[in-house]
Amino acid sequence: MRAVEPPPAQYASGPTISGVTVERSFADLARLQAFCNFYLGRPARGYYQACYVAALDVVALPDRHAWPSAAERRQLRAHEWAHARGWRHAASATGSEP
């Protein structure tokens, strides 16, 4: 399994900041990368498995058929929706902060 940082409990469920966040699925992982790179810039290391674009209020995920593990996709989805609820990564990118 790929490492997906689980969100803190207070961000694991509930309404999003705006209340109107939408989810967009990508069947083509290269298009997902292009979308996330365009709005968020290229990551300092690695690549995006999924992303939350606050400016659009969109959670971008690989389509269920495009990701090899349903369990991993669920973890990615929980992680990105937590961002829509206000969770942000720590500045050091080694953990999380509210």
Key traits:
98 residues, alpha+beta, two-stranded antiparallel sheet, 5 strands, disordered C terminus
Write the layout of secondary structure elements.
Elements: E1 22-26, H1 29-40, E2 51-53, E3 58-62, H2 70-84, E4 88-89, E5 96-97
Parallel strand pairs: 1-3
Antiparallel strand pairs: 2-3, 4-5
Structural commentary:
The strands form 2 sheets. Strands 1-3-2 form a 3-stranded mixed beta sheet, with helices on both faces. It has 98 residues and is α+β, with helices and mostly antiparallel strands. The protein has helices at 29-40, 70-84, and strands at residues 22-26, 51-53, 58-62, 88-89, 96-97. The longest helix has 15 residues, at 70-84. Helices cover 28% and strands 17% of the residues. The termini are far apart. The chain is globular and about 30 Å long.
| Rounded radius of gyration (Å) | 13 Å
Q: Give the SSE string.
A: EHEEHEE
N-C termini distance: 26 Å
Tell me the number of helical segments per DSSP (H or I, 4 or more residues long): 2
Number of strands: 5
Q: Catalogue the unreliable spans.
A: 92-98
Q: Could you describe the largest sheet, including whether it forms a barrel?
A: 3 strands, mixed
Structural class comes to alpha+beta
Sheet-strand content, in percent, reads 15-25%
Summed up, what is this model?
With 98 residues, this protein is an alpha+beta fold.
